[in-house]
Amino acid sequence: MSSLIAASRVGYDVLRLAGAGYLIWLGAASFWPRHRTGPEGQLGERGPSAGVGARRAYVNGLISNLCNPKIGAFFVAFLPGFIPAGVPAREFSILLGAWLAIETAVWLSVVVWMVDRGVGWLSRSGVRRGLERATGVVLIGLGLRLATESR
Asked: Which of 20, 61, 94, 151 counts the highest number of beta carbons within 10 A?
């Protein structure tokens, strides 16, 4: 597909204009009134994660991280560059890994605390409408830029 688009100016323009139209449509849709059937108040009441307890959420995140090949690739490709000469590589790698784990735990704790504090504010209907409209303006702007952009 990418070879065809790279070789064909018309194919590129068709795909570009279709993408621009879709972005503009998504942006405009954020301004249209919606008829919601569920409770309007609480953010997070709907969706696949509704009703999941803290232990189950932790296990899901742990499994997701353990099965993520990017973490292993990061440790193999990036961390060896930080091991000083003359230092036992295994012990220093374990130290760097432990440091990363602690730093990640602190960072994610801060994110969870911020989300816990912000969910009440974000679930207010006026704030949600404002965010939807701001996102709509951004999507329309991106669509217009894409439509007017030349190769």
From this structure: 20
